[in-house]
Write a structure and sequence with these properties.
InterPro entries: AB_hydrolase_fold, Acyl-CoA_thioEstase_long-chain, BAAT_C, Thio_Ohase/aa_AcTrfase, Thio_Ohase/BAAT_N
CATH architecture of the largest domain: 3-Layer(aba) Sandwich
CATH superfamily of the largest domain: Alpha/Beta hydrolase fold, catalytic domain
Strand content: 25-35%
GO molecular function, one term: fatty acyl-CoA hydrolase activity
Number of strands: 21
Strand order of the largest sheet: 12-13-15-14-16-18-17-19
Number of helices: 7
Pfam families: BAAT_C, Bile_Hydr_Trans
Protein name: Acyl-coenzyme A thioesterase 1-like
Shape: elongated
Radius of gyration: 23 Å
Keywords: Membrane, Transmembrane, Transmembrane helix
Largest sheet: 8 strands, mixed
């Protein structure tokens, strides 16, 4: 570009948004039909740099639109409006086994979008123009309440407004620790969410994993003054799914219980219970199949003899069909996806650091999947989860019958 040329104009709209919202990246005042690279860069709370980039050609008017134009290479290809986010990866030379997760949800993820000349060696050059964007898990007005005592540990997120709201108990997997970003995002969509910590990172063995602990969490959520008592659900991943299924089969406090058991022909399944099941099949590890389950419990009394909990998608589907209640189960299958299904546009983690609780040894655990199918699954499943929540937690019981 000549010195007399007007400087390029880079815009990201909206520049401040929730992480599940798409943005538009537009560059103007460029030399026509010329190569440019758009790059996103994020410095994580762990001190690591993550990037994504796409190679573009400006059109005849000197314009590049990420939403409308093709990327001809980089960390993503094709027309991918959010490729600058979901294809993020650690910059070359970073530590191995990294996973990008937000720890402090009261602050935004700051992402710098920059424009570079050409398609080669852009890292060694100064950007032509840059802009910082904010990506939030916690929307305006959300109240975060820390729960930390001898009986319960977690973070409670309450939406703004008079309420009351439906409630969601949020359970994570075997990595341990307190993960709040999914709860913060769901609270931003109108649900009181309790992110529950049930053991410290790498300390599964030292924690009391009794039903009483999870039942107490359920009661605390259900009895909160901002929660509609008969509109409470559980969302879970990995180990949290096994806990959820066990609670449903064994708990006397969660009254719509003992569904996912081996049903006798005389047993029934209540219409008030709805299941949302995502079966993700990694591309590289066909045997590594875990369930991401959303379970809505609407407190309708139900009793049967608990026999055995089935933690796999096909078994759950067969159980529901055998009971004549297959219509209560929403199941989505996504081929070529990995184990860690996050909110939309979250970078795909193929393998990450994991602490083995029995030996305190750090290993690299492979989660599988292919980046583009995995990212598409995250986006599609999240939209369907939100739709499922609105239908079964916000609609009246009469509307569901």
């Amino acid at each position: 570009m000549s010195l007399s040329s007007p400087p390029p104009i880079l815009s990201v709209r909206p520049s401040r948004a929730l992480v599940d919202e798409a943005f538009e990246v537009l560059v103007e005042n460029l030399a026509p039909v010329s190569p440019f690279t758009l790059r996103s860069l994020h410095h994580s709370e762990d001190g690591d740099d993550w990037e994504a980039y796409g190679h573009y050609f400006s059109d005849h008017s000197g314009r590049v639109s990420v939403s409308e134009d093709l990327s001809f290479g980089g960390t993503y290809s094709g027309m991918e409006p959010m490729g600058l986010i979901w294809s993020m990866r650690p910059v070359p030379g970073s530590r191995t086994g990294l996973r990008l997760r937000k720890k402090d949800v009261t602050t935004p993820m700051l992402i710098t979008v920059s424009l570079y000349n050409g398609h080669e060696d852009f890292r060694g050059n100064s950007p032509l123009v840059s802009m910082v964007t904010e990506r939030w898990y916690m929307g305006p007005g959300i109240q975060r309440i820390e729960i930390s005592d001898e009986e319960l540990r977690g973070g409670l997120f309450v939406p703004p407004g008079p309420g009351p709201f439906p409630g969601i108990l949020d359970l994570w997997g075997g990595g341990g620790g307190l993960l709040e970003y999914r709860s913060a995002l769901l609270a931003s969509r109108g649900y009181v969410c309790l992110a529950l910590e049930y053991f410290k990172t790498g300390q599964m063995k030292s924690t009391d994993m009794s039903f009483e602990y999870f039942e107490k969490a359920y009661r605390v959520l259900k009895d909160h003054p901002q929660v509609i008592p008969d509109r409470v659900g559980i969302i879970s991943l990995c180990l949290g799914t096994i806990v959820t299924l066990s609670l449903v089969a064994e708990s006397s406090d969660i009254t719509a219980s003992r569904l996912l058991t081996k049903l006798d022909e005389n047993q029934t399944v209540p219409e008030s219970l709805r299941l949302f099941l995502l079966a993700f099949i990694p591309a590289s590890l066909k045997f590594f199949r875990f369930v991401f389950l959303f379970l809505v419990v609407l407190n309708k009394p139900y009793r049967s003899s608990a026999v055995k909990v089935f933690p796999f998608p096909s078994q759950i589907s067969k159980t529901m069909d055998a009971a004549g209640k297959g219509h209560l189960l929403t199941r989505l299958d996504y081929p070529d996806t990995g184990h860690l299904i996050e909110p939309p546009f979250s970078p795909h983690c193929v393998a990450g650091n994991f602490m083995v609780y029995s030996s305190n040894e750090k290993v690299i655990q492979r989660y599988g999947g292919k980046t583009k199918p995995h990212s598409d699954a995250q986006d599609d499943s999240w939209r369907k989860i939100l739709s499922f929540l609105r239908r079964h937690l916000y609609c009246s019981h009469r509307a569901r019958m």
